[in-house]
Write a structure and sequence with these properties.
By secondary structure, this protein is α+β, with helices and mostly antiparallel strands. The protein contains three helices and five strands. β3 and β4 form a beta hairpin. The longest helix is centred in the middle third of the chain and has 11 residues.
Length: 96
């Protein structure tokens, strides 16, 4: 099982507390597809429904690495695949 940490507003939308767990291949694409299938209310909130591209103010992290601009079909770190570390979906902020 792959652990996924969602930001508070997405947890509220999905009606979950804490982290979620999904059974998926260890890639960002596969994990997010599994999350969206399990929690349909999240469809289109993390990735664009049509293109599958990451929303502008959403970032992906794992093992202290920013994966936001990496290919989403590449394998996640071994620690994430083993369930030791989560894939973190984070809402970015901008402004000044």
């Amino acid at each position: 099982m792959i652990r996924v940490l969602l930001p508070a507003h997405l947890k509220a939308l999905a009606k979950v507390d804490g982290e979620v767990q999904v059974d998926a291949e260890p890639t960002v694409d596969a994990v997010l597809t599994a999350v969206e299938e399990r929690y349909p209310a999240l469809g289109g909130t993390i990735r664009d429904r049509g293109t599958g591209k990451r929303r502008s103010y959403v970032r992906y992290y794992a093992c202290e690495q920013d994966l936001s601009h990496e290919p989403t079909d590449q394998p996640l770190p071994d620690e994430v695949a083993a369930g030791k570390e989560p894939l973190i979906v984070l809402g970015a902020m901008s402004g000044g």
